[in-house]
Design goal:
Strand order of the largest sheet of chain B: 6-5-4-7-8
CATH topology of chain A: Peroxisomal Thiolase, Chain A, domain 1
Distance between the termini of chain B: 27 Å
Order of helices and strands of chain B: HEEEEEEEE
Structural class of chain A: alpha/beta
Number of domains of chain B: 1
Oligomer: heterodimer
Helix content of chain B: under 10%
Helix content of chain A: 25-40%
Strand content of chain B: 35-45%
Distance between the termini of chain A: 15 Å
Radius of gyration of chain B: 16 Å
Number of helices of chain A: 13
Number of strands of chain A: 11
Largest sheet of chain B: 5 strands, antiparallel
Strand content of chain A: 15-25%
CATH architecture of chain A: 3-Layer(aba) Sandwich
Largest sheet of chain A: 9 strands, mixed
Chain lengths: 379, 136
């Protein structure tokens, strides 16, 4: 991809997050979209490309009154929005459209106007997993973790520290769902959901949405906001079935998406000032840190427990509080991107002073897919 | 378990031999004749080589407990807490299963313990491949 050629010029979440009984899912998309368009200082009629995941992109375009020149409905779970940003960069550079709106809305808690699963069902999963009692994500996403714990000696206490550290970030964020401090005992004594996972190791379930506006960087300088450039990106996928993940201690999709992001951005690990790793469950930041190469295999848990990613640490991670404490409507990737944009604009509630490069890493499905976006505020 | 409430597999042309096998008390895998690779889930070609020159083989039924969770969430046809496990077959592939004839506790479910296949007839069409602790 052409480094820094496209910028995010508008970004916003829905006006409210949490429990939103006044809006169905399509209106959550629209609320975020209108906020992002206003944030950019643009008009609806300026949008000529529309993309969304987890919802029919045609319905979103029609609801907003847009007849676009470019459309993308990639729906591979919560990281769909990282993939859509990546695809939008290519489309804009190819001249297929000029100004792309990427929307997300999800009535995850109130379940208003939701269309069932945000990912296509899997033929194999129906036959070879569902008969054995897998239901919601806590019964699937967690399955590889005991293997990891045995192979690398990860303790339940260290795993619990992921939730503890993210709550420290959430405490700094007025919009976070959960802000009260917690310790390891609180996590381990919370309700057992799916052994070894307790409630506080699992993400929230909320309503909300977010939207992004992308256009060419040379056009961005005339717009209202400080541009946030797309410096690099990556995407990949591995399997629709958690049981068929080749290595239960490492995600092939993470590794491919991460490597491509670093290479396309032309950066090394030491260049990353701010990191988001999609945390639907407490083990994901551990896998992410390792598969992206920030630490060696087996070291992710201790890296977090030792305080490297907490406020004041050398690698600030999930600075909005993450899916564990900030919000998680089901497809969290959009909220991770929004926090990356805030950090690059210098407007985050827990701002990392002087941060110039933010890496936002997403997962889709149960280690099924992955997308990674490298953002920067310097061209 | 109330079998009637579980979501049962709907065999497809690619998988019919597998479900025919379990009904006859056989665990069937596929092997690529050019590379020798044994693979699962079933398909009409080897996912490594792309070759359609494949054969159906009968697995030994021996496996080890690769990983698992114990779900405390409600699920149709299951009484929580129940384990959802991954059996790593002697031939290589991994397979999701429940662990039968075993306490559903971390103390009883020890990673890498030997397992053996146990066929659970649900109805005339469907027999599920489950696993149980191997007899010593």
């Amino acid at each position: 991809m052409k480094r820094n050629s496209v910028a995010i010029v508008g970004a916003s979440e829905t006006t409210e997050l949490g429990k939103i009984p006044t809006m169905s899912q399509v209106q959550l998309h629209a609320d975020a979209a209108l906020n992002a368009i206003a944030d950019a200082g643009l008009k609806l009629s300026d949008i000529d490309g529309v993309a969304t995941g987890g919802h029919n992109a045609v319905e979103i375009a029609h609801y907003l009154g847009i007849v676009p020149k470019w459309l993308d409905g990639t729906s591979v779970g919560g990281c769909s929005f990282m993939l859509l940003v990546r695809h939008a960069v290519a489309a804009i550079n190819e001249g297929l459209c000029e100004t792309v709106l990427i929307t997300h809305g999800e009535s995850g808690r109130s379940n208003l106007g939701r269309h069932g699963s945000s990912i296509f069902p899997s033929l194999f999963q129906q036959q070879f997993e569902r008969p054995f009692g897998v239901t919601r994500p806590p019964t699937m996403f967690t399955i590889p973790v005991l293997r990891y714990m045995k192979d690398f000696g990860l303790s339940e206490e260290t795993l619990a520290m992921v939730s503890v550290v993210q709550r420290e970030w959430a405490a700094k964020n007025p919009r976070a769902s959960f802000k009260d401090p917690i310790d390891v005992n609180d996590v381990l004594n919370s309700k057992m959901i799916c052994y070894p996972f307790r409630l506080l190791m699992c993400c929230l379930v909320t309503d909300g949405g977010g939207a992004l506006i992308l256009t060419k960087s040379d056009r961005a300088k005339d717009l209202k906001q400080k541009p946030v450039y797309i410096r690099g990106s990556g995407e990949s996928c591995e399997t629709p079935m958690i049981s068929q993940m080749a290595d239960f201690t490492s995600s092939a999709a993470f590794r491919v998406a991460g490597l491509n992001a670093f290479e396309s951005a032309g950066i090394d690990h030491g260049d990353v000032d701010h990191l988001m790793i999609y945390d639907a469950f407490a083990h994901l930041p551990i896998y992410g840190l390792e598969d992206l190469g920030f630490v060696k295999r087996g070291e992710g848990g201790d890296f977090i427990a030792d305080g490297n990613t907490r406020p004041g640490g050398k690698l600030p991670m999930n600075t909005n509080g993450g899916g564990l404490s900030y919000m998680h409507s089901g497809m969290y990737g959009m909220y991770a991107l929004q926090e990356g944009v805030r950090q690059m604009r210098g407007t985050a509630p827990a701002q990392i002073n002087g941060a110039e490069i933010s890496m936002v890493h997403g997962v889709g499905g149960m280690f099924s897919a992955s997308g990674n976006i490298v953002l920067t505020n310097v061209k | 378990m109330d079998n009637d409430q579980r979501e049962l597999p709907k065999p497809t042309p690619e998988t019919q031999h597998f479900w025919d096998g379990t009904r006859r008390g056989e665990l069937r895998l596929q092997r690529c004749k050019s590379t020798g690779e044994v693979y699962f889930p079933p398909r009409h070609f080897c996912p490594s080589s792309g070759s359609t020159d494949i054969e159906i083989i009968r697995a030994s039924g021996r496996a080890t407990l690769h990983s698992y969770v114990i779900s405390h969430l409600p699920a149709p046809g299951f009484t929580p807490p129940y384990a959802i496990a991954i059996a790593k077959l002697e031939e290589g592939p991994k397979m999701m299963c429940n662990i039968v004839e075993c306490e559903q506790t971390p103390e009883a479910l020890i990673l890498d313990m030997p397992l053996e296949v146990s066929f659970e007839k649900v109805n005339d069409e469907i027999t599920l491949p489950q696993f149980k602790p191997a007899e010593k």
